[in-house]
Write a structure and sequence with these properties.
The chain has ten helices and nine strands. By secondary structure, the protein is an alpha+beta fold. The chain has two domains: 1-118, L-fuculose-1-phosphate Aldolase, CATH 3.40.225.10; 145-273, Class II aldolase/adducin N-terminal domain (L-fuculose-1-phosphate Aldolase, 3-Layer(aba) Sandwich), CATH 3.40.225.10.
């Protein structure tokens, strides 16, 4: 069967990266069954042939009006699809969608009529914000990092700035490679517009957001970047839990030590919030 990726090496490379990352998510145990979602803005790779493709199914409503997305194209993981299957067959477990001129609906154009993730409103609201603000970020990743979700079950870590402070203090690389820390969204129904709106508020200050008792959403220049930021934060959470399991609260890096890392790496002097 002919694929939209045929003879389009740049677009294929983007989708290959998505497939690679989904394999990592499965191996880490962050993507049980059909857990997790991915959306990538691929508009820059769309040629006239792709732009002229007809819809494979009737247009569907997003649930929000997103003006910056008019005529934009995205790769989106399919609803009910498993990450382990997407890693092998990305175009059978995801689809290319086009945002309609009303900015409130989308249509599937390739390769197959695979319905996008149920979290699409959250993903597209983030993509709309990224475009409106001139961001270079193209990818959004939702997954279920075990240690970070576990920490969200403890009230202490839902307080403003507390989880960021602890994660930054576990290992210098966390502060260096996740300098915006982690935002917290109190529990809301998965797939709801309310969850999308709350996530959008947090993404204005953070590149990774934790949905209480659910999972994380990360944005990045590409899907590998979004994965890396999540991975760095989850490693810090794992270190915290390993140290805590030895019977006492980990000391963590001092404020002075963290300020030194910020200065050496020329990081923003952001405080946990």
């Amino acid at each position: 069967m002919k694929s939209i990726l045929d003879n389009r090496p740049a677009l294929k490379a983007v989708i290959d990266d998505v497939a690679e990352v989904t394999g990592y998510l499965w191996q880490k145990g962050w993507a049980e069954r059909n857990g997790g979602n991915i959306t990538v803005n691929i508009t820059e790779y769309v040629d006239s042939e792709i732009a002229s493709l007809p819809a494979l199914a009737p247009a569907r409503q997003i649930g929000k009006v997103l003006p910056a997305l008019k005529g934009k194209y995205f790769y989106a993981k399919g609803t009910g699809k498993r990450m382990r299957d997407l890693a092998r067959w990305p175009m059978k477990n995801g689809a290319i969608i086009r945002i309609c001129d009303d900015c409130a609906s989308y249509e599937i154009i390739a390769d197959e009529p695979v319905m996008p993730t149920s979290e699409l409103p959250s993903h597209l609201a983030l993509q709309n914000y990224l475009l409106e603000t001139g961001s270079t970020y193209k990818a959004t990743l939702h997954t279920h990092p075990i240690e970070l979700v576990a920490m969200s079950h403890i009230e202490r870590f839902l307080r403003p700035g507390e989880m960021t402070r602890v994660l930054w203090s576990m290992i210098p690389e966390t502060l260096a490679f996740a300098p915006l820390g982690i935002g917290i969204v109190p529990y809301k129904l998965p797939g709801s517009v309310e969850l999308a709106d709350a996530t959008l508020e947090q993404i204005k200050e953070h590149d990774v957001v934790l949905w209480e008792k659910h999972g994380t959403v990360a944005v990045g220049t590409d899907i590998m970047d979004a994965f890396d930021q999540t991975d760095v934060l989850c490693k810090a959470a794992n270190i915290y839990m390993c140290a805590r399991s030895m019977g006492s609260e980990p000391d963590g890096m001092t404020e002075e030590a963290m300020r030194e890392v910020q200065e050496v790496f020329h990081l923003p002097k952001k405080r946990p919030c």
